[in-house]
Amino acid sequence: MTTPRVENEAFEALLHEQRRFSPSEAFVQQANATAELYAEANADPEAWWAEEARRLTWSTPFTKVLEWDAPFARWFSDGTLNASVNCLDRHVEDGRGEKVALHWVGEPEGDRLAITYSEMLAKVSKAANALTSLGVQAGDRVAIYMPMIPEAMVAMLACARIGAPHSVIFGGFSAEALADRILDADCRVVITADGGFRRGVAAGLKVQIDDALKLCPDVDRVLVVRRTGQDVTWVEGRDRWWHEVVDPQPSVHEAQAFPAEHPLYIMYTSGTTAKPKGIFHTTGGYLTHTATTHRYVFDVKPETDIFWTAADIGWVTGHSYIVYGPMTNGVTQVMYEGTPDAGGQDRWWRIIEEYGVTILYCAPTAIRTFMKWGDHLPASHDLTSLRLLGSVGEPINPGAWMWYRTHIGGDRCPIVDTWWQTETGGIMITPLPGVTATKPGAGMVPFPGISADVVDNDGASVSNGQGGLLVITRPWPGMLRGIWGDEERYRETYWSRFDGVYFAGDGAKRDEDGDLWLLGRVDDVMNVSGHRLSTAEVEHAIVGHPAVAEAAVVGASDEMTGQAIVAFVTLKAANQVASGGEAALIEEIRNHIAQVISPIAKPRQIILTPDLPKTRSGKIMRRLLRDVAEHRALGDVTTLTDPAVVKMIDELMASHGEEE
Ligand code: PRX
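Above: inputs. Below: predicted complex with adenosine-5'-monophosphate-propyl ester.
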C-alpha cells in the first residue's frame, strides 16, 4: 500500500495559500442547506436520517432506523416502499404529471424528446408489465446494456417497480466483460439496444450481447430497443423487439411495495483483483441517501431547476444522480446521449444555453478537455442560467477547478466537489452550497450525518496538516450491503484493514484548517478519466494474448485523464519480435485489451521488456514501475533480485517516448 503523494506543486501552493470562496449573500438567502444541518445531523445521525427518510413515500412506515451488526447494516428495515413509485407516481398524484421529467437530447442534431412525469410513468408501467409477461419476478436479476436513451431509465425503473434488481453494464464494456457480469449475477433477461450514437457513429451494442451470450446459456430473453436502425442478428425465441413487447402493454401497473432492504440493484466495479465486484444496494436507505444529498448538495428547487448530470447511466453517478436522487425529488433533467464534441466542441454549452440548465454535474476529465479546447467555446454561449456546478469521479486539480469557476460558472456559481464511490451509494464528502466556503481542489467536509476520518497506517487519526487513509467511521443509509455472492470479499476488502470502520481505498489529507483534500487511490485501482479499472484486470487481459508471458500494469499521472494506464509486458520466448515488428504487436495487444474489457482500458503506453523487476520472493515491484512510468527518480532497489532490470526498463521507456 502506498501513501499518496500530493498531486503537484501548484496544488501545494494553493493549499498553502488557503484561497477560499465564500458563498454569496444572495445564494445563502435561498439555499436549501443551512449551517445548522451539521449540528442537527451530528447530534443524532440516525434520527436525522430518519427524518429525511420520512420525506419518501412509504407504504408501511418504518419504526426501526438502523440495525448495525458490523459490517452489516439494515436501515428502516420494517418499512416497505417502491422505488419507482417514489420516482414517478407520487409526483403525478401530487399534480405534477405535466412537468417535464426528461429533456432528452440525442447525439444526431435535432433528435430530441421532452417526456413528462405522467408519460414516464406510463412508459415504466408498460415496461413493468412487459417484464412480468416475460416471466421476470421480484428478486430476479435483469442485465441492462444500453446507450443514453430514455429507455435506459425506463428499464431501470421498470425493474425497480417489480422488485427485480437491475445490473446495468456500461455500454463501453466488451463481450467478455459483459459475460462475466451477466454470469456473476445470474441474469436470465437482458435489455439492450441495437446500438447508440457516439461521435457520429452508430456503435453496435446488440452485437456485443450476441457474443457475450455465447458464454451465458441461461439467458433466455433479450429485449432490444431499436435506436439506430442498424442491422442486427437475431436469435429466434430469445430476442424480442422492445417496441413489439412493451408498446402494446397496458400503461397502468399496480406497484407492489417491498421491504426497505429489498435489493434495488447490482453495479459491478473494479477492485484490486481481476474479478469485478458486484456492489449491491437496497431500497429505502439508498433512496434516502441519494434524495437527501441531491436536495442539499445541489440545492435543487424542483419547480425551477434544470438539472444535468453529464455522466453515463452505466456508472453509479448515473444511477444516483440521474435516476434515483433527481427522480425522487421530481426535478426536470437534461439527458444527453453522445460525446461532448459531437456536432462541435461547444455541444455542451449549446445544450446549457438552449435548455437553460441551472445545475451541471460532471467529471474533472471533461473540464480539463474543455480547457484544452479553448475558452472561446463557452464564451460564445449564454451560460448565465447556471447557478451551481458539481464535480465528481476523480480528484479535481485546482487549475481545472478555477477554470470551471471562471469560464463556466461566470465567477458566480458555487462549486461542489463531491467525493463518493459506487460502494457509498451517494455523496459523502462535499461542501454545502450556501454554507461552506470552498477551496479550489478540496472536498472539504463530510456531508451531515456522515462521519469520515483520515488515519495513519495504525488507524490513528492524523492531525491537521497531515495525510493518510480515508475511512468512514459510522454506517450510512446508502452504503453497499455487500458484494453479490461474496460475503468474505466484502469483509476483507472494506472492513479488515481497520477494525469496525470502512476503508475506502483512497488517500486524503487534512489541511491546517481540518478540511479534507482527496488524493486518489492508494491501492491497485486506477482512475482513468473517472473510469475505475484495476491493474489486475488489465494484466489479466494482457496475459490472455497468446504472445505474452507476463504483464505488470500501473496507473501513471496524466494531465488530461488524471491517470493513464502504462503496461510493462514480457513476451514468450518464441514471440520475441525483431525491432520494427514491435509496433504491430503492441497495437495487437491494445486491441486485445479493448476486446476483452473495453476500449477505455487501452494503455496509453505498452513497453515490451525482456524482464520485470521482482523482489526476492517473486513479487513484481509496482512502486518502481510507477516511478519509471512517471519519469521519477527510482526509489530503493535493494530488495530486487536484479536491480539492473529496472534500469533497463527505465531506458526502454525513455527510448520509446510517450505513445498515444
Ligand atoms: O478514488 C475515488 C475517486 O473515484 C473512486 C470511486 O470510483 P467509482 O466507484 O467509480 O465512483 C465514481 C463516482 C462516484 C473513489 O474511490 N473519486 C470519486 N470522486 C472523487 C474521487 N476522487 C477525488 N475527488 C472526488 N470528488
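The mean pLDDT is 93.
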